[in-house]
Model the fold of this input.
Amino acid sequence: MSALDASIKSNQYQFYGLVTLRFLIGWHFLYEGISKLLNPYWSSAAYLLDSKWIFSGLANTIVSNPNLLTISDYINMWGLTLVGVSLIFGIYSRYGSLIGMGFIMLYYLFAPPLVGLEYGKPNEGSYIIVNKNLIEACALWVLYSFPTSQHIGLDRFLQAKGKN
Done:
């Protein structure tokens, strides 16, 4: 057991708080992914068309090319679903945390809560620079920094199998 593992396990309240955070964020990702997979009419086009700031040109390019839009849709649907599974079940959860941070930061950069940017639909949870996406990305950073899946999760079994 590494020093990091020992420090995580030493305070049970912190440890179970991190496990709970991992599960809840995993649930959020899994829900978002599955809801998109089950909706045959879902597309990332509306979100991309509403994009402002530095990635708006890229967003318009993706929407104007049906192949790129299809790729974007599949990456979103399956990526969100797989990150959710990773976090909930604690399997490769450090990678899941990193990939989840990547998704969330892209969503943040495509639609940042900056003064002067107006979007077609109101963004709930925007507080000038900080919004729920930025907060969730930081929470994923914490989960990456303090992995719990080696103790509660399928990574525990993968880690044990690798040592044999």
Observations:
- Residues 21-163 form one domain.
- The mean pLDDT is 87.
- The longest helix spans residues 12-38.
